[in-house]
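User: Um, any thoughts?
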Amino acid sequence: MRRVDRNRTRRQGVGRGRQAADRQGHGERSRTASRSAAREQASAVRPAKKKSRLKIRLAAGTEHRATKPASSDGDSSSTVVETVEIRPSSSVISRRSAAKRPAIQHLPHHPVLPMKPPAWMLEECHVSPARAGDQSEILQLLSGLPSPPSRAEFHAAVDHPEHDSANRLVARLAGRIVGHVEIVPRDLLIGSVAVRGAVIDRVAVLPECRGAGHGQRLVRAAEDRMRQMGAVAAFSRTRIAPSFHELGWSVLGRDPATPGRPTDIIARLLEGQSRIGESVTMRQWRHVELPAILRIYKQNASRFVGPLDRSENYCRWLVSRGAFDSIIVALVGQDRYELHESSARIVGYAIQSGTRVLEIMADPEFAGVEREILARVCAEAIENDRQEITYESSVGDPLHEAVAGGASLVQGGDRMIVAKVFQPLDLLMALAPQVAARVMEADIRETVELGLDAPSFRGSIIVAEGKGSDCQATVHPGRVGRSYLKLADSELARLLLGQCDPVEAVAAGRMEPSTQMAQKLAGQLFPRQPLWCPMWDDLPA
């Protein structure tokens, strides 16, 4: 009885399962019929295709493929089932090889077009002295220089007792300041002779306005201003020497700045010969020792062309300006705090600003002290964890080789020193005593005459033999004599400033001597002299 009941229960369960399956199948057939009706409506609108494919995936592990061509009458209901693929219900990863696509450029590519400044930038600018309200705009313009002045330094220069507002020129274009140049009057040393001169500093033009001639107009206006001031010659330190040369300025030489590692410099200095003489002690300077530093400067400056003839008042202003970090002095004798050099004598000094060594000078009687001072500077740099120092001095200074250590002294971004002589007659008359002294040193016991034929000056200098060992030099404008030199104004400036080699100039075609004697006299009367423009005077504070 129980078995009969179990069989009946099984039959009833199977019947219910079949009924559920029938109901599920009926629902599937209803949904399929609805889809077919929708496809028939869409096919009535779209043109019939030759062959359509349908891919059906079911939850099983078999695959069935069937293909049937479409009916010729265009009936869209005859859909062909091409592939029946039965897979488990999960994520399907396609491993079909994707076609190569072109790279996507995230940034638009714009071809490089020649930049042409607007027409208003090419108009001629108006150069005039700066006004009091232009200070902020000038400071913004000067911020693009390699060594821009600070706001405090700019106002300190404006407040200087000898400052003249007419010596700061600006170029205006459409009411905007596009250029700047500053003229600094100075007494320059040409050997042992001091002449009235000037320095052109901080020549700047807005980057978007360059190439339109605004810088040249500024320099020409500065030349006119210097002529009005009575300047005999002008100097400038620049990295655009070709632009100055186009305006008639003479390129005198390099203004080197040699970098080096302090540890390597000390090693090379120790390898050299030690100085023989009294030992020196070094320490930081005291303000009462400024006259001693000025004395050493004047003992050395007379050997160069280009230094400033510093006075004591000027040196005190230079110190108060604060354009340095430390001054080291070398002493011989017992070091005591004294107002005068009675127990100890200062024989050398060094001026530093950060990693830059601006000046190292020593008493000529104590040759070789410069090397010891440089070693002390390097020792302090090592203590302060400075990996490199830069030595700035004359090209002929032997300490450059000790700093470079065999490396090239010529750097790609070296500054150049350019100059222009405005009054050749006045400069030649100032140099006449010096020329007479050179004739005496050469032991020439006869009257010599050298003529100069240039566009800006035509005349001669005559050195006549005097009584005993005395001789005098006189300048005669308008007369060139038999032995003379024909040369351009730029070469005349190089000759008078002691930066011309007559043999080299003749070979290069920059100078044409009338006789061999004229070429020989040019080398004797105007020999080459070392060029040096101290950086301490021009360094921004």
Observations:
- The radius of gyration is 45 Å.
